[in-house]
Specification:
Elements: E1 3-6, E2 17-20, E3 30-39, H1 42-49, E4 67-75, E5 87-91, E6 101-105, E7 109-111, H2 118-122, H3 125-138, E8 145-149, H4 156-164, E9 169-173, H5 179-184, E10 188-190, H6 196-203, E11 210-213, H7 219-225, E12 233-235, H8 239-245, H9 258-270, E13 278-283, H10 287-294, E14 302-306
Parallel strand pairs: 8-9, 8-11, 9-10, 11-12, 13-14
Antiparallel strand pairs: 1-2, 3-4, 3-6, 3-14, 4-5, 5-7
Helix pairs in contact: 3-4, 3-9
Amino acid sequence: MPKAVRYDRFGGIDVLHVAEVERPAPQDGQVLVRVKAAGINPSEAVIRTGALAEMFPSTFPSGQGSDLAGIVEEVAAGVGGYRPGDEVIGFSNERAAQAELVLVEAGDLTRKPAEVSWEVAGGLYVAGVTAWGAVHSVRPAEGETVVVSGAAGGVGSLAVQLARRTGATVIGLAGTGNHDWLRGHGVIPVAYGDGVADRIRAAAPGGVDAFVDTYGDGYVELALGLGVAPERIDIIADFAAAATYGVKTDGGTAAGPGAAVLAELAGLIADGRLEVPVAKVYPLEQVREAYAELERRHTHGKIVLRP
């Protein structure tokens, strides 16, 4: 029987386990994918604690995960465009991606370029689409300056690269251990912590035009204090601050159809124009260890599960 990540109640990482489940059968419009890699994301950890139960109600036992890449195993009758053996990247809206076999709507898949590794492809959807949406939301342009907080994280490391592609000057807030990587991607690194506003002003004497906050914890107030207009601030974590100050929360919604953005991002990766750092890969059975690593919030890039 295939295996899948499950939890039977809200809680910490201790509620996670890997269970044997029935083999899924594709219905109208669905494709059965044998997963080769599945990414993990902070939002999944928050949903699992029950903190977002009103927004994301759960039925137990619950699965987990959206990001996936794998090989088409079976296709429902009437589904065109895919056949067994095809290598694909996609996402599940059913919290089911962290498993050996996953049902995916055909419209939520795109083909995986051969040049894109399984680990990169499997962790691409949430971080990639969120970064794409956040950057497009604040509309950086050539000659402008945009700041990205959490610039070495899963979303931030993609956001800085996508922002650079617009021709804007990009300042990335990150720990000093990630500054060389940021410089290597054309980003001006600035250390976070006490005095960060002064360090940003020194790095951007002409001022800051836009701000993408991937971390939370006071960065909206920092952006406003730097003179950034609320309509050019986009956040993906601090929704209370967004409600208070009227800044944007478009990271997960501005991208439009997810599969189309996935295809665009995969093409950039295949051509060597976008890098997805992979911090660590864990076997599916070590899902607890993977989330323990994630919740430390100091990894450079994505953490990925391999069934």
